[in-house]
Amino acid sequence: MSFVKEFKEFAVKGNVIDLAVGVIIGGAFGKIVNSMVNDLIMPPISLFIGDKGFTNYFLPLSQKVRTFMENNPSASLDDARKIGPVFAWGNFATEVINFIILAFIIFLMVKGINKLKRKQEAEPEAPIMNKEEILLTEIRDLLKAKI
Fold first, then answer.
1. Which of 36, 42, 70, 126 is deepest in the core (most CB within 10 A)?
2. What is the pTM of this model?
3. Mean pLDDT of residues grouped by 10 in the chain (147 residues)?
4. By residue range, what is the domain housing residue 99?
């Protein structure tokens, strides 16, 4: 089997389409989770730790950045990154929270799908009958009704 023919079979079977749909939905869902974390969860946390915003917490890794931050205490993480290296622990923590929420939601989805699959597997399938079996069943039922 040639490589091109094998690839066409793979693409037509739906694997690629299923993967593409999953990636698109996952990207959109990731944006929703990012918005939930950045717009709903982190603002109350920022109130408790300061008005700077949680993602803007970092440790300067050079004297140049330290001096810049002393002179500009309200500067953001992006401003500090322009000056020099920083250890952006607040941004990292935000991304970890995003990941945990996303992983938990995906876990719940997979758990639900597995439950539905087990339920379908537990239900006995109706036997598939050919035309002769269908006719014989109808005749049997008619005979039972006359007796």
1. 42
2. 0.57
3. 77 71 83 85 77 77 92 87 91 86 85 84 76 88 83
4. 3-146
